Amino acid sequence: MYQFNHASELLQMCENHKLDISEVLILAEMEESGRSRDAIRGLMEKQYQIMKESIRKGLSPDIKSVGGLIGGNAHKLSVYGQEKGFCGKTVLKAVSYALAVTEINAAMGKIVAAPTAGASGIVPGVIVALQEDQKYSDVKAVEALFVAAAIGRIIAINATLSGAEGGCQAECGSASAMAAAAAVNMAGGSPEMCMDAAAVALKGLLGLVCDPVAGLVEVPCSKRNASSAVNALICADMALAGIKSFIPFDEVVDAMYRVGRKMSPDLRETAQGGCAITPTALQYAKRILE
Ligand code: SF4
């Protein structure tokens, strides 16, 4: 009864039953899994605690990734953002948190794949920074995670969340759409506004290729999480200001999938194109292979 494959169906359910996106997702999950509301909420609360823990650990100056390409950037930006910056405190906090999670991921620490390990910094970066700076409750933050999950579910059903299949637009693009919708929900925006934010966020990253240097999820992945978190916040603000997406979310998802299918395999996680074949990247790859 609460199952949905498309944003249009989800919005219709919200409208018909006067429910918000998180509630429809919980009801759908209860139907599908047979689990109780408390069990489902408990699982999501646990995921949120893991996200917070990965941020806390990732802000340490001593993090070093397995490939040695990243580590300590989250710490640098969090120190810098306390006193300086063009972007404002909350944006820089979200970015430093996004970097923190990706640095922990690259150091083989524990993260929540939201929706993938490579794009794991965006959703927690945005939600945790907003919770801290806007003083939202834990209940509100977990509710926002359900909204993010609803967006991820629609993309997973109708397109792909995999960089190997659809390029980085499917990973960082999807995570940015998830975070944008979550942010709108936290601020009290309507389900339609959540979808507008998600649509604009995914559109902004359409065509983004997957080109990890030496095949490691470090460069450009970590900093791409940073810029995708900012993209999410901008799109959330636009939606909350009443700006609509000209193209509905479902159509953007279809477009993203079509773009992914047309992408050369060189640009889909094989490290054969983009940043991965720049002279600097090739030099590094040769060094670690030796
Ligand atoms: S570049 Fe590829 S591996 Fe890195 S985050 Fe994007 S999709 Fe994932």
How would you portray this structure in words?
66% of the residues lie in helices and 0% in strands. The protein is mainly alpha-helical. It has one domain (7-289). The model has no long low-confidence stretch (mean pLDDT 98). The structure holds iron/sulfur cluster.
Helix and strand composition category:
mainly alpha
Overall radius of gyration: 18 Å
The span between the termini is 57 Å
Number of spatially distinct domains: 1
Helix percent reads: 55-70%
Briefly characterize the structure.
This protein is mostly helical.
Topology of this protein?
Elements: H1 7-17, H2 21-33, H3 37-58, H4 73-83, H5 89-106, H6 122-134, H7 138-158, H8 163-166, H9 168-186, H10 191-204, H11 221-240, H12 249-262, H13 279-289
Residues 118-119, 163, 168, 171-172, 210-212, 217, 220-221, 224, 269 line the site of iron/sulfur cluster.
List keywords for this structure.
mainly alpha, 290 residues, binds iron/sulfur cluster
